[in-house]
């Protein structure tokens, strides 16, 4: 498991701390450090173009401009459509979902391209323009939700659902969202099968192999000189965190505490298959939708427990993989496992104190916080979670 996301960080540290020879181009007699500084300055100046001067260049749908009144062309090539052929000049826009393409191996990029062509360029237009489930009443791709007659459900949906005045029959999804949910669920099934078939033997072997016995790996040979962080350190942190979660759920009335015995195993089971993909390709595999739908089915549409379950199921997986990636970074850089453990634990505690203090201060001092009509909108608490909770409630009743 390479964890490609660590490689540019290691390269940067080497540039800063090691004496490097000039880059091997005759016309570019620069040290690696000077080359890095020049590119950094260039990127800083260039970002003003799509980020401030011409925001349209963040994703420039040039094909759409050929015939601006053509609805089909706009749906297929527009930024708020399927975005085929759009030119992206904003690095943040390019990397916000799949990470840096520079770090993704070529075979993984080819897989992404094939999947994009099959599902985005072929499947979604075929489903939409054949008007399956009357999808043509809505845009081909959108983050909004609709009533069955095609009217938009606005942010007021939150208050309506909390008052139990709306059911799943009152909500309609757009074509892209529906296909996405089907693909996500199918992806997890394929991921589990792939992990068992392609990595099952290696996983069993690794569980029985120590660093000292892996003499063919120079990194393991060098790291075996350090003392490992004892397993009971990790177990102790887990037990303390689990007890704190129980107390938080019980006294904060977020969700019944015993459901932690469901959400924690869910997160544990998703770490291995999704972590293998991320460790080999640097492409993040999100468990957000799966945790969201599972929580909605369990809690019968009750919003707060559903959202709490979703956060635990998703965030546990994300942070665990982040810890593993950092441990691999220490493995590459030959940092003692005990030093790395202590450092990460200390930084985590400090960040918790700062984040909780800032959040508490904002809740006490800012009026109408998270009111979508005001200046302090909370984008991460969006309508989607409420919709899934409502759909989960109705589907559970239908199944029973």
How do the helices and strands line up, and which of them pair or pack?
Elements: H1 7-17, H2 32-53, H3 71-77, H4 91-95, H5 106-129, E1 145-146, E2 152-153, H6 157-162, H7 175-207, H8 218-223, H9 231-252, H10 260-281, H11 288-298, H12 303-333, H13 337-365, H14 383-399
Antiparallel strand pairs: 1-2
Helix pairs in contact: 7-10, 10-12, 11-12, 11-14, 12-13
Please give a structural write-up.
It is found in: Membrane. This protein is mainly alpha-helical and 400 residues long. It is 62% helix and 1% strand. The mean pLDDT is 81.
Structure, briefly:
The protein has 400 residues and is mostly helical. Helices cover 62% and strands 1% of the residues.
* Gap from first CA to last CA: 44 Å
| Helical segment count | 14
The shape is globular
Tell me the fraction of residues in β-strands, as a range.
under 5%
The largest sheet, given as strand count, sense and whether it forms a barrel, is: 2 strands, antiparallel
The overall strand count is 2
User: Which class do the helix and strand fractions yield?
Assistant: mainly alpha
Structural key phrases:
mainly alpha; two-stranded antiparallel ribbon; 14 helices
């Amino acid at each position: 498991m390479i964890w490609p996301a660590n490689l540019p960080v290691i390269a940067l540290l080497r540039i800063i701390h090691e004496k490097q020879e000039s880059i091997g181009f005759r016309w570019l007699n620069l040290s690696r450090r000077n080359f890095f500084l020049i590119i950094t300055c260039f990127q800083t100046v260039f970002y003003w173009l799509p980020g401030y001067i011409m925001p349209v260049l963040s994703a420039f749908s040039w094909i759409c401009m050929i015939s601006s009144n053509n609805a089909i062309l706009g749906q297929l090539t527009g930024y708020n459509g399927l975005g085929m052929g759009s030119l992206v000049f904003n690095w943040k826009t390019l990397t916000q979902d799949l990470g840096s393409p520079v770090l993704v191996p070529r075979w993984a990029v080819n897989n992404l391209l094939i999947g994009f062509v099959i599902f985005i360029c072929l499947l979604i237009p075929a489903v939409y323009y054949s008007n399956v489930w009357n999808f043509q009443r809505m845009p081909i791709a959108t983050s909004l939700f609709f009533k069955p007659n095609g009217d938009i459900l606005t942010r007021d949906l939150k208050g309506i659902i909390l008052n139990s005045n709306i059911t799943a029959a009152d909500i309609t999804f757009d074509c892209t969202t529906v296909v996405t949910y089907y693909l996500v669920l199918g992806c997890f099934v394929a991921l589990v099968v792939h992990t068992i078939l392609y990595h099952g033997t290696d996983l069993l072997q690794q569980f029985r192999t120590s660093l000292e016995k892996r003499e063919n790996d120079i990194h393991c040979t060098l790291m075996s000189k350090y003392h490992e962080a004892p397993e009971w350190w990790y177990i102790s942190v887990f037990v303390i965190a689990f007890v704190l979660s129980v107390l938080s759920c019980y006294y904060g009335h977020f969700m019944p505490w015993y459901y932690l015995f469901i959400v924690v195993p869910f997160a544990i089971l998703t770490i291995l298959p999704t972590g293998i993909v991320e460790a080999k390709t640097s492409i993040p595999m999100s468990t957000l939708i799966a945790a969201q739908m599972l929580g909605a089915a369990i809690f019968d549409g009750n919003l707060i427990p559903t959202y709490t379950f979703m956060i635990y199921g998703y965030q546990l997986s994300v942070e665990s993989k982040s810890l593993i990636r950092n441990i691999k970074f220490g493995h590459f850089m030959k940092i003692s496992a005990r030093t790395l453990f202590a450092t990460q634990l200390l930084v985590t505690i400090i960040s918790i104190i700062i984040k909780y203090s800032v959040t508490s201060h904002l809740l006490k001092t800012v009026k109408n916080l998270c009111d979508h009509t005001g200046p302090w909108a909370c984008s991460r608490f969006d309508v989607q979670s409420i919709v899934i909770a409502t759909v989960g409630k109705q589907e559970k009743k239908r199944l029973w």
